[in-house]
Specification:
- This protein is mainly β.
- The protein is built from 1 helix and 9 strands, in the order αβββββββββ.
- A 6-stranded antiparallel sheet has the order 4-3-2-1-8-9, with no helix packed on it.
- A hairpin with a 4-residue loop joins strand 5 and strand 6.
- The longest helix has 13 residues.
Length: about 130
């Protein structure tokens, strides 16, 4: 599994001084209409299992899915939309740019096997286990 190096907090396609406001806006949009409380952690990347294979979702990239081949090795497929934010909760949620893709928005990721947090944000920095 490739583990991305933590980076400074950003939201794709957003001016640096507007990133926190945009993140809060995305969080509020996802939170409305849901019964689950979303966490405050600024998450850069998660790895999780799905019925499609081992998935990695990284802010600024598209979802990557590794599916084992019957005779060894893996096939790797990529989504078509850029990930804007990842939110923790009982089921982690991935928000992508609107557009043609095969994932619901927000996409449910369940409980990840690995969480990579943006660096320089207090208690949530670097690598860590999932919280919920």
């Amino acid at each position: 599994m490739d583990i991305p190096e933590p980076v400074e907090f950003f939201v794709p396609n957003t001016d640096p001084e507007q990133c926190e406001a945009r993140w809060q806006e995305l969080r509020e949009a996802v939170q409305s209409g849901r019964n689950q409380q979303l966490g405050d952690e600024r998450i850069y990347s998660i790895s999780f299992e799905s019925n499609r294979g081992l998935c990695t979702a990284t802010v600024g990239s598209s979802i990557r899915v590794r599916t084992p081949r019957k005779r060894g090795g893996y096939d790797t497929n990529y989504g078509t939309s850029t990930i804007l934010a990842i939110f923790s909760g009982p089921s982690y949620l991935i928000v992508q740019e609107p557009g043609p893709n095969e994932w619901h928005n927000p996409a449910m990721a369940g409980v990840p096997t690995l969480v990579v947090y943006f660096v320089g944000l207090g208690d949530w920095t670097g690598y860590g286990p999932p919280t919920a």
